[in-house]
Amino acid sequence: MPLQLYNTRTRRVEPFQPRRDGRVSIYVCGLTPSAQAHLGHARSFLFFDILRRYLTFSGYEVTYVQNVTDIDDRSIAAAHRLGVSWREIVDGYYAEFKRSMQRLGVREPDKEPYATEFIPQIRETIVALIERGYAYVASDGIYYRVGKFERYGALSNRNIAELEAGARIEIDEAKEEPLDFALWKFAKPGEPHWPFEPYGDGRPGWHIECSAMSHALLDPEGTGFDIHGGGADLIFPHHENEIAQSEPLMARPPMANFWLHGGLLLFDNRKMSKSLGNFEPLCDVLDRYDPQAIRLLFLRTGYGKVMNFTDEAMAGAEATLERLRRDYRALHAVAGSANGSVREGGALTARVVAALDDDMNTAAALREVLAAAGNAEAEGAAQRLAELRNALTLLGIEPDERWLAEPEALPLPSDLAAALRREIGEPWLDGIEDARAALERAIAERLAARAGKDWARSDRLRDALLRCGIELQDGKEGSVWSVVR
RNA sequence: GGCGACGUAGCCAAGUGGUAAGGCAGGGCUCUGCAAAAGCCCCAUUCGGCAGUUCGAAUCUGCCCGUCGCCUCCA
Questions:
Q1: Is the CB of A43 under 7 A from strand B?
Q2: Which of residues 206-225 of A have CB within 7 Å of strand B?
């Protein structure tokens, strides 16, 4: 059974078939960095990262393009508000987004085109649309004539008449029909602008950059590319408008064979959204939770489903991740002493592949991975470990050094010595600046207290250590410690 | 109002015709000076409601109720 994907365009699950054998072209609508990225963005890009990993794993040569809409009304507004240039706003937020993606293990796109780097191609596209009667020049900009494109509404399953009933013309817009949308906005004083002879200086409207850039980078012949992705909130109007802009100029539509949309993330049962203001910046969430746990949480829900984010669910994902790491470590230990050759593709790989072939059922894939990790039998351990590592990498939860390190081997908080002095306040810590030395001294003190059955002092020291981020666990062979976050 | 998605235990969630995965939380036990960790066990006669199709339904059909999304900037 080949890969099956839900295609928004046909509203059906269909077998995935690339246009050219062995090659897959993907265009995903990226970020508009006019504000901080949030977890909802992460969910979407995390999904496309896994899709890309899987296609690559399946032997395709994948070209993944994810654009940056680096010019829009909100970044201009934010720049005015803060008294800086829009470029600073956009670069700042985008750099933060990139750092967050890196922490989440999202691989860099093959190409990250900026809208402002494609102004010539955007102008060309607009000129072509004007020449064919799909666009017209108005007093404040150049607009797309929606009524001219008969398939308008096909992607989002809407009809123009109904849309018009609910649409409104903004006060200073001079467009012919309410549904018409801006391809180019003439610059008002103080706004960033690019030349466009003979029409007038200005900036591209939202939507047009994706038509121009996907054409330039993935589909120069105008015969379409394989997969176009984005969040479900982009289906209308953004993707509908992209199609309207692109397809009249193509030699052979459709613009993209497969349209894939990631389900939205709710927070407090409301859509996580810049405009609603109900979100925590992604970089802050990543400080609070292990990025791999966030990834694992998202894997447990179908990519296209609406998902509600809660701290409770997050705690569950962290617990699952910890167990997975422990199981992995145990399996690694067993496999190290076990002999047996590792062959390509085995039972686990086959199960994971079957799961992902089923419209990227990451929940089922994860289930297989967790079950395999939990099997600590020596028989076939090396094989299982190898497959497990591959499957985890496929899902983007890559086992790194931390997975194999004993908890005690992890780095200590840099301010541990000072923290211990503050919490314990006993003279034997004076002058010890080294974190490890201070920790070892404190543990030795506690062991002495335990040996003397001074349980009160023993518990006091254990509590103090915990407040400093060190958890002690007493076993038969003495105490082991680990760093808690 | 139009279009769409969803409603499974306290929470998250898988399962889409064959008799309810898993995790978290909660409870019990073992271990322990006490904890923690770990291990074992328990925790939905039932899948929003009501009809219907079927030998059989959480899964299919119809109606109803509820939540959310898109229809305006949004991943």
A1: yes
A2: 206
